[in-house]
Amino acid sequence: MQNLFDQVIFGPIHSRRLGLSLGVNLLPIDAKICSFNCIYCECGFNTTMQEFLFPTREQVKTILRTKLTEMIRLGEIPAVITFAGNGEPTLHSDFESIIDDTIALRNEICPTAKVSVLSNSTRIHKPHIFSALNKVDNNILKFDSAIDRTMKLMDQPVGKHIDVSWLINELKKFEGKLIIQTMFLRGEYQGELIDNTTEVEIQAWINALIEIQPKQVMIYSLDRDTPAQNLQKVSVDELNLIAEQVKAVGFEVSVAG
Known about the structure:
This protein has a single domain (9-256), classed as TIM Barrel (Alpha-Beta Barrel), CATH 3.20.20. Helix 1 runs parallel beside helix 2 (95-109) and helix 2 (95-109) packs parallel to helix 3. It has an eight-stranded mixed β-sheet. A hairpin with a 3-residue loop joins strand 1 and strand 2. The model has no long low-confidence stretch (mean pLDDT 95). The chain is of the alpha/beta class. It contains seven helices and eleven strands.
């Protein structure tokens, strides 16, 4: 299963978390490329092909300017310009420059729009990525579990040793200028049970949030088909119960059912 975004700029769509969102896909339109290989990703598992064609910085800037100008003409003012798409957006070699271009276009054409990045947190240790993410309005970083085995089962890190301790230490460096995004699910993958909603999981996760000190927490569950079978959606009622525990320790939290 691969449900890929076939354009550099897509939408606008009504995001469950962000409102009217214009999407930016910095990855190839014919491949899923990511430093995680999440078992729940709507784009499917990573593509194994070797030749990839990334959009250039100038292509992104030109297409984005055209689309934003058209939206303003039609009276469709985006609430947010969101970097997402077919994998991890920070893998683009010109990521920071594209963020600079996007902020300039936003300021010129639709100054009320927020710039958001959905990232899996695997490249935040790189100075230019850290710098770029500090410039955007919504720096949304994945943190699916504070228990190593669960994180690795859900997110399937590619190529680099990543563990929960490393993630927490790197996330803390944003000093609160970040939004934590967590997928809750349960099920089975390759013979192992997965459930990051247990009492042990939630307590470890909340303890990690207290260390990281994000300005906001976003929690959600499955909404589309997943590449791995035997995964189950967590109900909105359960998500709301988790959200209450997050609020109890002082964090703003949003739930997407």
